[in-house]
Design goal:
Elements: H1 2-34, H2 46-90, H3 94-99, H4 102-144, H5 148-193, H6 195-201, H7 204-229, H8 234-254, H9 259-300
Helix pairs in contact: 1-2, 1-4, 1-9, 2-4, 2-9, 4-5, 4-9, 5-7, 5-8, 5-9, 8-9
């Protein structure tokens, strides 16, 4: 979190430096024209280029540090969970294997461990990045045009209710996807184990048809989940752009706001829609993917075999 905060602070500083650089360069070139003077001063770009170069190098280093920190943390957590789960399953009593489907155990070691290993760290980084980008964009727009704060409150309330509705639908669809994946894995493992018996009674077509039905059910759930993840609230971003554009142009006309800051505010306003979309989607994805940790944590509560009294 600290590395993300530092990185996005530097990113905002880079954009602000460019805005000031542009405004000062335009003002120096426009000043002789306002005074009806033919002699124009040469603008010194050296201080701005040095500051801009230092900030860019610092931003690159912080991006690298952030990526390493997230991946290292995710790898450490994954190794700890997988080791604990393996020890619990190895020492589990026989009644556990008699009452728990083999597909469920395989799903914990395959799909859930893969989710924790590959998806959760990336989603966590995207969530923190999109959240900080959205906050920094709104902060820059509010700094450039303080009138934007008046319209920010209803927009925030609207976005809250939309993401609340989206997260519930996305979580339910993910649970449906998981519930249809378990019978598919169980049927596949049972088919492989009883392949000799299936061939002896010539039930190949029956088991193949059953496998295709389970696959279709799982694909339907996955299709609806993918379609739900594409559901975006574009009109909120359009409202932000409209309000920011109107307030920025009004401030530029009546308050003599510099053109560089107006361009900075409009640039961030155009990106707010994308930041909001990714923030809501990543928040829903994180809530879904943490279900893998919850399921593994459920198996970690399995009591080990009791060897007391045995020789």
């Amino acid at each position: 979190v600290l590395s993300q905060l530092l990185k996005h602070t530097v990113m905002v500083a880079i954009d602000y430096c460019l805005a000031c650089w542009t405004s000062d360069a335009i003002s120096v070139k426009a000043e002789p024209e306002l005074k009806n003077c033919s002699h124009s001063e040469n603008f010194n770009h050296s201080p701005y280029s040095k500051v801009f170069s230092i900030l860019c190098c610092l931003g690159i280093v912080l991006c690298l540090v952030t990526s390493i920190a997230v991946e290292w943390t995710g790898l450490k957590v994954t190794k700890k969970l997988h080791s604990s789960l393996l020890n619990k399953i190895i020492l589990a009593p026989m009644r556990f294997f008699e009452t728990t489907p083999l597909g469920s155990i395989l799903n914990r070691f395959s799909a859930d461990c893969n989710t924790i290993d590959q998806h959760i760290p990336a989603t966590l980084e995207c969530l923190s990045r999109s959240t900080l980008l959205c906050v920094s964009a709104l902060a820059v727009i509010s700094y450039v045009t303080p009138m934007f704060l008046i319209a920010l409150v209803p927009l925030a309330i609207m976005c809250y209710f939309i993401q609340k509705y989206f997260r519930v639908a996305s979580r339910d669809l993910q649970q449906l996807d998981d519930s249809t994946q378990l019978p598919l894995l169980s049927h596949f493992s049972e088919t492989v184990e009883g392949l000799t018996t299936i061939r002896a009674f010539r039930y190949e077509a029956k088991f193949r048809q059953k496998l295709l039905e389970y696959t279709d059910s799982n694909n339907i759930a996955s299709l609806f989940l993918t379609a739900a993840n594409r559901w975006l609230e574009e009109y909120i971003g359009a409202c932000v752009v409209l309000i920011a554009a109107v307030t920025s142009i009004t401030s530029c006309l009546y308050s003599k706001l510099s053109s560089g800051l107006v361009g900075l505010g409009l640039t961030y306003a155009l990106m707010v829609s994308n930041y909001l979309n990714w923030m809501v989607r990543n928040l829903a994805d994180m809530e879904i993917q943490l279900g893998a940790v919850k399921r593994i944590n459920g198996l970690l509560k399995t009591e080990a075999e009791n060897y007391e009294g045995l020789l």
